[in-house]
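Posted in: Protein Modeling Q&A

I'm a second-year student putting together a small comparison for a lab meeting, and my supervisor asked me to include a predicted structure for Sporulation protein YjcZ. I've never done this before, so apologies if this is the wrong subforum. The sequence is pasted below exactly as I got it from our records. If anyone can share the structure token output, I'd also love a short note on what stands out.
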Amino acid sequence: MYGTFGGYTRWAVVFLIIFVLFFLLVPAYGAGAAY
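Accepted answer (user: helix_wrangler)
Welcome! Here is the predicted structure, written out as tokens:
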């Protein structure tokens, strides 16, 4: 169960967290730069 699929799921979770943080920080940084 912890073969390639386990490692792929781990990378998918890490990439998802980074994508969510990036998606939340970009609009906040844009608003801060605008003002």
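A couple of things worth pointing out for your meeting: The mean pLDDT is 80. Helices lie at 4-34.
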